[in-house]
Every structure is written in C-alpha cells, then in structure tokens.
From TrEMBL:
Pyridoxal 5'-phosphate binds at residues 73-74, 99, 149, 169, 192, 234-235. L-glutamate binds at residue 39. The gene is serC. It is found in: Cytoplasm. Catalyzes the reversible conversion of 3-phosphohydroxypyruvate to phosphoserine and of 3-hydroxy-2-oxo-4-phosphonooxybutanoate to phosphohydroxythreonine. This is Phosphoserine aminotransferase. NCBIfam families: PRK05355.1, serC_1. Its cofactor is pyridoxal 5'-phosphate. Keywords: Amino-acid biosynthesis, Aminotransferase, Cytoplasm, Pyridoxal phosphate, Pyridoxine biosynthesis, Serine biosynthesis, Transferase. PANTHER family: PHOSPHOSERINE AMINOTRANSFERASE (PTHR43247:SF1). It comes from Noviluteimonas caseinilytica. Homodimer.
Length: 358
C-alpha cells in the first residue's frame, strides 16, 4: 500500500529493510542496534555519522550546532523561549496554521508572546504579506512555521526579519528542498516526517545564540548543556538516532535535497492538478502561491462521499488519507519517502472516483 500518513509517516523501503536485519544483530556487535550502549564506540560512530550525513544533506554551516533530542517538536517550542529570551521579553510569532498556534501557546508561560501576523481570521488559507507584519520592540526572535502540516500552507520564500533571529519549525518540510540555513537563527524539526521515525528531534542552532543568557532552566532543557554533552545528557533515543542516520543517508544516495525538490514539485503538481481540474468535485482552498508541497489537504464537494472515498481508496492500496480532525476532509502527505508512483496512483484514483461518483 501507499501510506499518505502525515506523521509518523512512510519511510523509505531500503531503510526499513536494512533496519530489519540490523534489529537482529548490528554488524559484529553481538547484539541488536537497540541493545548496545550509547556510550560505546559502535553507537558513537552511528551518532557521529548521522550528524555528518545531516550536515552534508542540508549544507549546515560550521557556525551552526546540531542537537538530537527527545520530546518532539512541541518540546522545542517550549525550550526555544527558555533558551533564547529573558523572562517576560517579547517574542514575535507569525501564525499561519495550527502548529504556529501551538508554538505560540507553548511559549506563553515564558515570554510575552506577540502575534506579528496571523491568517487565522482567513481560516489559514494564506500567508500575510511580509509588509503587514508588525513586530514587538526588543523581540528576542521571530517564529514562523515553514510548513503547516494540517492546513497545507508553506512559506515559499524565507522572510527577511532584519537582525532579529528567525526561528522556524521545519518539522514537515525539512530536507524537501535546498535551504539557506544561514538565514535562520534556529531551525527545529520532529523527525517523523522526512527524517525517520518519531522519537527524536533535530535542532539546528546558530552557535552565537547559544551564548545568550536565556532563562533559568535545568541542564536537560538547556541547549548549551546538550551541546556540551553531545546530546547525551541522558540516555538518547538510540534506535531513532540510528534510523535518522539511515534515512538521511538514503536521501543523500538518492541525489540530495536538489533532487527531492524536483520530485516534490512534480508530486504536488500531480495532486493539485487533479484537484483543480475536477470542476469543484475536489477543492483545496489554500492560496496557490503558498500551497504546501508536502501536505495536500482537500475536500470533496459532498461530505457524504468522504466515507466511500476513504474505503475505496483503501481497497486500492491508498491508505491514511483522512484529513486531520481540526479541519476534516482529506489530506495526502507526500514526503520525500513517498514515491512518484504512489502520488500518480492517488491522482488516477481521484479521477476514477470522480467519474463514478461525480
Ligand atoms: N510542528 C509541526 C509543523 C508538526 O507537523 C507537528 C506534528 O505533526 C508538530 C510541530 C508537533 O510535533 P511533535 O508531535 O513531534 O511534538
């Protein structure tokens, strides 16, 4: 089956096959990858090669540190104000969907959150023009959500926010295209879409920002201590780290982010064409200029068709197309591991379903 789940999402088949054998015995360690110590030379090699591969894949400059931590993207949303803002200092949030709103909420106890721009009143169907954003004075950072996984809205350009550090949630679009990391202060992502299975997140931080005081926080919530401790202050999620390394290496072997950018443009165009050419049978309400290439939400013209659509799709080997409960309808998540054949199969199915039910 082709799995269109938004996350945990489909993983590349070669990665799953390699993991299957190494789950039983990892190289000559005499034990499974999940049974060896995180402090031993075998796992340290897994961890450092995962970072090396990620740095190569994303062209991460040397003046950026990379942290691999537990707690998912939501935890980073709370740790960012703790690490980079003074208590009560303003921090700007640009809210373009559900996850931007979550980030705002997580920061609330620690900083004076300020909404610099929001498309909530419009149902999160666009991104407010940069010229309309209104920043707080003395803001610690500006936070954006690069790709809104539920609403299907994606920044197609990195906004210029001057000297204030730009913090971006890239959970659902990291590694989907080449990115100038140097334009950001912090980039974070839960792994479970483009980077591997759920259970680990990646935070890429400009090193000079780590010198900022931040707020009182326990070591375990302190990015500086995590960096000093090589992301191993406590037992790290070793299996997830290993799987992330395999997934990143797979992306490098496939041709890297430039190659995936082309595939993702073709894949998303297939689905948006099927929607736009359906004469209203299917609809996607997002401003075409900011439609996501990773998550394609769509609605059928008659809600009564939702159930038959999902059940016939499942029979055709196309699974996990039900939309998020926040907006309903359908959603096809087409991350890097989704082959073009899977997206073509879905577009063909959509046209066929419309012929039979339209
Ligand atoms: N940010 C975005 C853009 C997401 O898509 C998600 C989850 O889907 C999250 C944050 C929350 O991630 P986590 O479940 O890892 O905390």
């Amino acid at each position: 089956a082709y799995n269109f789940s938004a996350g945990p999402a489909t993983l590349p088949e070669p990665v799953l096959r390699q993991a299957q054998s190494e789950m039983l015995e990892w190289r000559d360690a005499g034990a499974s990858i999940v049974e060896i110590s995180h402090r031993g030379p075998e796992f340290l090699e897994v961890a450092t090669s995962a970072e090396r591969a990620l740095r190569a894949l994303l062209s991460i400059p040397d003046d950026y540190a990379v942290l691999f931590t537990q707690g998912g993207a939501t935890t980073q949303q709370a740790l960012i104000p703790l690490n980079f803002a003074q208590p009560g200092q303003p921090a700007d949030y640009v809210v373009t969907g559900h996850w931007g709103k979550t980030a705002l909420k997580q920061a609330g106890p620690y900083v004076a959150t300020h909404v610099a721009a929001s498309s909530e009143a419009d149902g999160y169907r666009n991104i407010p023009a940069r010229s309309t954003w209104q920043f707080a004075a003395d803001a610690a950072y500006v936070h954006i959500t690069a790709n809104e996984t539920i609403h299907g809205v994606e920044f197609r350009e990195i906004p210029d926010v001057g000297d204030v550090p730009l913090v971006a949630d890239f959970s659902s679009s990291i590694a989907s295209e080449p990115l100038d990391i140097g334009k950001f202060g912090v980039i974070y992502a839960g792994a479970q879409k483009n980077l591997g299975p759920v259970g680990i997140s990646v935070t890429i931080v400009r090193r000079d920002l780590l010198e900022r005081a931040g707020q009182p926080r326990a070591d375990i919530f302190d990015y500086r201590s995590q960096l000093k401790g090589e992301s191993m202050l406590n037992t790290p999620p070793t299996w997830n780290w290993y799987m992330l390394g395999l997934t990143v290496q797979w992306m490098l072997d496939e041709g890297g982010v430039a190659e995936f950018a082309q595939r993702n443009a073709r894949k998303s165009a297939l689905l948006y064409s099927a929607i736009d050419e359906s004469g209203g049978f299917y609809r996607n309400e997002v401003d075409p200029a900011v439609r996501s290439r990773m998550n394609v939400p769509f609605f059928l013209k008659d809600e009564a068709l939702d159930k038959p659509f999902l059940s016939e799709a499942k029979d055709a080997g196309l699974i996990a197309l039900k939309g998020h409960r926040v907006i309903g309808g359908m959603r096809a998540s087409i991350y890097n591991a989704m082959p073009e054949a899977g997206v073509q199969a879905l577009a063909d199915f959509m046209r066929d379903f419309m012929r039979r039910h339209g």
